[in-house]
Structures are given as structure tokens and as C-alpha cells.
Amino acid sequence: MLDKTQKKSVVVLGGGTGIYPMLRGLKRYKDIAVTSVITMADSGGSTGRLRDDFGQLPVGDVRMALAALSADVDNHDELLRELFLYRFAKGEGLNGHNLGNLLLVALTDMLGSELEAVKVASRILRVRGTVLPVTEDQVHIVATYDDGVVVEGEHAIDEPAEDRHGHHIVELCTQPKASITEEAKHAICDADLVVLGPGDLYTSLLANCVVEGVSEAIQASSAQFVFFTNLMTKEGQTHNLTAKGHIEEVLKYVGRAPDTVVVNTATVPEHLLQKYAEAHQYPVVDDVNEVACNIVRADLLDSTPVQRKEGDVLQRSLVRGDSKKMAEIVYNLLS
Q1: Sign of torsion, CA 310 311 317 321?
Q2: Which of 171, 233, 301, 325 is the most exposed place for a label (fewest CB within 10 A)?
Q3: DSSP label at 195?
């Protein structure tokens, strides 16, 4: 057990649905103060439409982090969380939109600040932790592939055109340049432990690290730096990339090797493997024996089937990490 007189600070870097179970697991520990630093490059689905219509920072990943850290003491809390995650499946103009996204856009419009909107939404949801956008700059991520092709926009990279299949990303940056917020910078520098992942390597994780000041903050921090490797590869991003290859990409963009790498040992059910194989996606191969850091191998798989929400037009993972399993690993690293 940790010293209950002083909470340990854990910062989770990422975005998308990958870090959702991580945050839900960590909030259960009363002796941990959790901060979620969220990528601001999302451009798909409801978030992309609202970003185009209102010119505000993308809200989808922030919404997921707020919902993950929201209070769940009673049925009222659970209903409020589900309401925040509710996605419209019909209605002209509303179909595909998420109510939490709309609320965050409205709060930003009322308060004149994305950061203030997040703070107010945190109070409404009684969030157990802190959610911070990594930057307040309006940016898109840009990927350069091994054949010289350049693709701009998180959605175009996340769901790549067929001509990107089999290719690898060799360079990632933001357009235009972006700078880390002071709040996010201080959170990373003052943390006891910084977690990168889980999530899509380029569009959810490294999208944070190419924001100016993020890698410098991680390098300067005395925190343990922990990287959770992905469960599966992704066509057009990490095709054939092994666990060691993931670590090398983290080192390339962060400038600091992880102190601990967490690798999944659980076997994905055969029927799901077949579905992934249809999209040329496969389990990430564990080849990290020669990596000079602490290796934690564990069953990270959530056995609960992923349910696709009506009205959701984006591609989603069929398997996810288990919140309790991942949070327990982080907690034990703090002890």
C-alpha cells in the first residue's frame, strides 16, 4: 500500500477509447491523484463535425476522459455518465453526435474558453481527477509515409486510404506547430509516474508527444515513465510493428526510453482474430527480451465484448484493455 498521508500523482497521456479503461481503473485508488492529458488532434466523427462548425478545440477525447473519471457512487452518477456518453442515432443534424460533445461545445461558447469548459464539466460530473488538453492551439497531425506520401488529419491517418495499406509512418508532426499548456507541463514535471497508452500509437499517443514542450517535460520529469504496448497492430500505422518497434518509436518522439514497458500476454479469442485479420491487423508480437528496461508481462485483455453504439460511424477496436488489470499494474509500480 502507498502512504495514505500523501497522494501519488499519476499522469496518463493519450486519447481516444484506449485510455478510458485505464482512467476508470485508476480513479478507484483513493491514494492516487490522476491527471489525464488529452490529445487535441481528433478530427473524426462528431468531434470533427463540431470542430469544423464551431472552430473550437476537438472535444471527443476530452469527453471520454471526463466520463472515465466521473463519480459512480450511485445510480444518479451512472445515469449522468451515460447521458454524457449518449450518442444520437437519428435526427437531421443530430445523427452521430454525442451529447457530451454538444455540452462541451456549448460550455466553451458560454465561457469563452475550452479549459474553463472542461473545469465546469468536471464539476458537473464530480470528476475524480483532472482532465487537461495538451494544447490550446488548433492543430492537425501530419504523417509522412515510407514512400514519401504526406497525409494530414487524425481521421485520415486513423482510417487510412487503401493506398496506405502496408506502408509505415516515418515522420509525425503537427500543422501548425503547437505548444503544451502550462497546466499540462506542470502536471508532467511534478508527476510520480507518467503513463503513455494504451491507444493507437500515432493518432492517440504520439500525437501528444509531437506537441512542442511535451517530450521536454517528460525528459525533465523525475517520474517513472511507463508505456503500455498496444494489443493489436493497425493497418496504415503499425503494420507488422512489434513491441520493440513500438518502444523505438516512443524513444524517437519522446527522447526518453520508458522505464517500464507493459506487454499483454492474453490470447485474443479466435473469432475476433479472424475479424482483425480481415483488416490485416494482428496481435503485437512480444520481442522485448533485449530491451534495457523493466518488462511487465500480464493479461491485459478485457473479456467483455465491445458493443458498438448505434449512430457511431467510426471504426472501433474489437478488444480493449481491462481497467482493473491495467490500474493494478500502475498502482504496484508506485509502491
Answers
A1: negative
A2: 171
A3: E
**Cell (9 digits) for 160:** 487510412
CA–CA gap between residue 213 and residue 160 (Å, rounded): 28
d(CA 13, CA 214): 10
Q: Is the sign of the CA dihedral 205, 209, 210, 212 positive or negative?
A: positive
User: Cell 503547437 appears where?
Assistant: 178
Q: What is the pLDDT of residues 141-177, one digit of tens each?
A: 999 999 999 999 998 998 889 999 888 999 999 999 9
- Name the band, by pLDDT with cuts 50, 70 and 90, for residue 310: low
Cβ neighbours of residue 287 under 8 Å, at least 6 residues apart? 242, 243, 244
Give yes or no for a contact between 69 and 127, defined as CB atoms under 8 angstroms apart. yes
Q: Is the pLDDT of residue 47 over 80?
A: no
CATH no. of 8-334: 3.40.50.10680
State the DSSP code for 41.
-
pLDDT at 312 over 50: no
**Could you tell me which of 239, 231, 230 has the C-alpha nearest to residue 164?**
239
Can you give the pLDDT at residue 68?
94
- pLDDT tens digits, one per residue of 207-263: 999 999 999 999 999 999 999 999 999 888 898 999 999 999 999 999 999 999 999
Instruction: Answer for the pair 71, 125: CB distance below 8 angstroms, yes or no.
Output: yes
H/E element, 260: strand 260-264
Return d(Cα 185, Cα 215) in angstroms, integer: 10
- What pTM value is reported for the model? 0.91
Domain ranges of the chain: 8-334
Give one DSSP letter per residue of 6-28, joined into a string: SPEEEEEEE-TTTSHHHHHHHTT
Provide the 8-state DSSP code for 141: E
**Strands, DSSP E only, in 138-236?**
140-145, 150-152, 169-175, 193-196, 224-228
